[in-house]
UniProtKB/TrEMBL annotation:
Domain D-glutamate N-acetyltransferase-like N-terminal: from-to ranges: 47-125
InterPro entries reported in the protein's UniProt record: DgcN-like, DgcN-like_C, DgcN-like_N, P-loop_NTPase
Species, as recorded: Steroidobacter agaridevorans
Taxonomic classification: Bacteria, Pseudomonadati, Pseudomonadota, Gammaproteobacteria, Steroidobacterales
Signal sequence, start to end: none
Ranges of residues in domain D-glutamate N-acetyltransferase-like C-terminal: 131-328
Name of protein: EBNA-1 nuclear protein
Amino acid sequence: MNIPAPYLLYLGAATDPLSIKTSRGVADWRRELCVGQRRLPGCDLTLGLDDLSYSEAVARGAKTMILGEANAGGVLSEVSAREVVAALDSGLNVASGLHQRLAQHPDIRAAAQRTGQLLFDVREPPADLPIGNGRPRPGRRLLTVGTDCSVGKMYTSLALERELRRQGRLADFRATGQTGILIAGSGVPIDAVVADFIAGAAEWLSPARSDGGWDIIEGQGSLFHPSYAGVSLGLLHGSQPNALVMCHEPTRTHMRGLPGRALPSLKECLLANLEAAQVTQPEVVAVGVALNTSKLDEASARGLCEQVEHELNLPCEDPIAMGASKIVRRLLECFPDGTAAGAGMFSRCRIGTAARAR
């Protein structure tokens, strides 16, 4: 998907930090492509970019407004629809990660036809995706999984790709969500795929690989989230991951969007994901825990990581605040030559996951 850059990032009137995760992800990982942000009255969030009108953004060279808000169901509000029309009339293309397609809105469709500007619906899956078959395929694949939605699976995946490349290893981030696709320029919006084809979409996204490199597949949802567990399970089966990294936000008091629904423990969640992954990859192992410690002070964050390491016998770190070197070290110990390590090392990898987590 070739979306013209630079970008103006639209935040709307958002007040929930998680509701602008699309804009924030692009700003964090592709900041050099961002000229500013567009905020409406009432928005008290910021990406640290200049606040610009549409005409100001065009004057600074912006080519596309990224509709970077997210809500339950991915619905386009009438306020945002009017803003999209204003952006088009100002000479900007518009890209959206919402489930509702831009061209389905009559005013937006008319504005695009009138101005000749382009509409990009990032959540449009590729055509003719196959049904998953579960047949073993060559390659090394790591999948990030989580205790809940929006706990850092995409950030962790990108950080692991960056650390592997820093060490001279071949690694490619495989995006499965709208923000990741905007960052990577390609991928599959897995939550927009018809359920029967989710596993097949994951197989298509990370095909057989023989160059010794790693596909780092962005996880979605959580096996324990009643709303989104189906997407998580399909990814586990289709990815056939050799390795899992568990992602968690330790200050979360309940499942996102479900007050009163408690999060699973790390041990419980780890075991469930390993068991599900074994359906198509019997030798899967966990290689680390990634904590989102952005709401903790440094001492508390490091203390919690040490506690998790002791409990699970797995490296634990915040891949953004602390780096991902410990998790990558374990990954390369378990898979030094593109396959599993020798019997002794591989046994230790497995003991460091399921056996110790029980």
